[in-house]
Amino acid sequence: MSILKDYAAYAEHSGSKLKPLTKTMFYCNVFFRLSSVLYKVRLVPVARIFWLLNRILFSIDIDPRARLRGGMVILHGAGVVIGRFVTAEGNFKIYQGATLGGNNGKKRTVNGQTFSQPYLQNNVTIGINAAVLGPVILENGSSVGANAVVTKDVPAGAVVVSNNVILAQKSAVEV
């Protein structure tokens, strides 16, 4: 169950098994997971209530149709936006003001899977006010720095430090 993955991710981040219960952003995850389940069982009006509660209480907009399968950790989450076609297969951390989504109608097929918004693999970090837009893949262990805008794939373990510029060891490489 995804909420258990969220709990485990928060516990790992905080270093305590009980601390997630004291984190307000964990309850944002709970509202998102409830909204998502209610949407899947076609109780859309009730799902929208939990979505709206997230918007009002936490200033976070996570569409209930987003497929966030791993553990999600939201840190200082005000202003976070996650679109309806975003997919996350593993754990990820996202900081305040970050946006995942937007595609202007672009679609992409990789290994028989079609997607139109970001696809996150495992252990991805999205920094403060970063924007990851369109059908891009953030591979295992990649990070997006503060204020970066990503419109192209990010390889495993890479760090994006500005608009599609990847910091590769000690030099910057344009992708």
From TrEMBL:
Keywords: Acyltransferase, Repeat, Transferase. Pfam families: Hexapep (PF00132). This is Serine acetyltransferase. InterPro entries: Hexapep (IPR001451), Hexapep_transf_CS (IPR018357), LbH_SAT (IPR045304), Ser_O-AcTrfase (IPR005881), Trimer_LpxA-like_sf (IPR011004). It is an enzyme of class 2 (transferase). Belongs to the transferase hexapeptide repeat family. Its EC number is 2.3.1.30. It catalyses: L-serine + acetyl-CoA = O-acetyl-L-serine + CoA.
